[in-house]
């Protein structure tokens, strides 16, 4: 250890063999890697190398893809760090669904940074409090950053509509309320070996031939051929 300053009245730190971080976002244009691919590559390295004597710092993993893909990956990565790597981990996330891990896995504790909201403004207190945050402050932070008022007003209206949709939040919360049991390794391997459908096949399956004019059908056929030629399906 370097003997760095610890911002606390007292701290008990055991020896660490490695410190891993998955923080920040940025693509790698030179090697053709997207932000999400960079993020997953770093996460994979951590999952393969962290030990019970390691410290892992993770910030907002899974945000570079669709909501459910990202949420599922974040949950699975957190479980692996807890149950397989068994390392000390600080896992920052806006996925409220992950707060259920405190009830499911021993040694997990939810904490949040406190803030005070007054009208449309927010003040960050930078005080660590026990428990999960009761809400997020995305609109208030956007206002603080200078987003124009018409944009904020429209976003607020959309948020109100989304929150009124029946079953929206419960459906997401229920994803992880059942006891989590990993699939047998044979079934996991079989799922990974299943090939993804070719984009041309997906497009073809969605077509309604009776609704196409002869010209549209011909144009669609040429487009499908071009798509297959530019991205040939794997052999076998």
From TrEMBL:
<dbReference type="GO" id="GO:0140664">
    <property type="term" value="F:ATP-dependent DNA damage sensor activity"/>
</dbReference>
<keyword id="KW-0547">Nucleotide-binding</keyword>
<dbReference type="InterPro" id="IPR000432">
    <property type="entry name" value="DNA_mismatch_repair_MutS_C"/>
</dbReference>
<dbReference type="Pfam" id="PF00488">
    <property type="entry name" value="MutS_V"/>
</dbReference>
<protein>
    <submittedName>
        <fullName>DNA mismatch repair protein MutS</fullName>
    </submittedName>
</protein>
<dbReference type="GO" id="GO:0005524">
    <property type="term" value="F:ATP binding"/>
</dbReference>
<dbReference type="InterPro" id="IPR045076">
    <property type="entry name" value="MutS"/>
</dbReference>
<dbReference type="InterPro" id="IPR027417">
    <property type="entry name" value="P-loop_NTPase"/>
</dbReference>
<dbReference type="GO" id="GO:0005829">
    <property type="term" value="C:cytosol"/>
</dbReference>
<dbReference type="GO" id="GO:0006298">
    <property type="term" value="P:mismatch repair"/>
</dbReference>
<dbReference type="GO" id="GO:0030983">
    <property type="term" value="F:mismatched DNA binding"/>
</dbReference>
<feature type="domain" description="DNA mismatch repair proteins mutS family">
    <location>
        <begin position="54"/>
        <end position="70"/>
    </location>
</feature>
<keyword id="KW-0238">DNA-binding</keyword>
<keyword id="KW-0067">ATP-binding</keyword>
